[in-house]
Amino acid sequence: MNIALYALIVFLSYLLGCSNMALYLSKLKGVDMRSGGSKNLGASNALVLMGWRYGVLVGIHDIGKAALAVALARHFAGELPGITAAAGVACVLGHIFPFYLRFRGGKGFASYLGMTLALNWKFALIVLLIVALVTFISDYIVVGTVSTVLIVPAYTALTGSLLLAAILSLATAAILFKHRENFSRLCQGTEIGLRRAHRGDDRKI
């Protein structure tokens, strides 16, 4: 294994993940995303604080950068074991822990989806359908998020790719960590559901 090439791709993927469209757009709009909504630099908070158009733009960017990281790793070093998953995970971690924002970025879910789409788009579409149903039924985005980040590595392990599953689990652990406040509010019954948020209560999403 070419350790230097492996390390370079992981490092560049992390830097790509550090790109944060929510930050850029909020600066243009004069919106402080650190003090409103979930105080998080991600697509869902951009939607809450700046409107659906901005939320969609941020989501597309966050999905796209992770998919790009995987695609570039596949193109330049596809022969390295686990490199595509490692690049995707590094990008997700860059989004969650950007060095220039004191490691306080977004929650990583959109980028996780982008990574999954690039790794196995057919499986990813099935996961998206399942997650959409789970989210709609439960009324909580965090439930759909947890379902996704647990299903992906579990499926990967069951299909025989233990190395890939272990790598993907790093992103899963980081996303679960970033959603710990959501879990706490869910247990306390204070988490804002989609229907309630639609009615205008956007304190915490």
Textual characterization of the structure:
The structure is a single chain. With 205 residues, this protein is mainly alpha-helical. It has one domain. The chain contains eleven helices and no strands. It starts with a helix and ends in a 7-residue tail after the last helix. The C terminus is likely disordered.
Give the SSE layout.
Elements: H1 3-18, H2 21-29, H3 43-50, H4 52-77, H5 83-96, H6 109-119, H7 121-138, H8 141-158, H9 162-178, H10 180-188, H11 194-198
Helix pairs in contact: 1-4, 1-5, 3-4, 4-5, 4-6, 5-6, 5-9, 6-7, 6-8, 7-8, 8-9
Biggest beta sheet summary: none
Query: Helix/strand/pairing class, anyone?
Result: mainly alpha
Report the strand count: 0
Distance between the termini: 43 Å
Give the CA-based shape: globular
What count of structural domains? 1
Portion in beta strands: under 5%
H and E order: HHHHHHHHHHH
Low-confidence stretches: 200-205
Helical percentage = over 70%
The average pLDDT score comes to: 88
Report the total helices. Answer: 11
> What is the CA-based Rg, rounded?
17 Å
Short description:
The protein is mostly helical and 205 residues long.
Key terms:
205 residues, mainly alpha, 74% helix, 0% strand
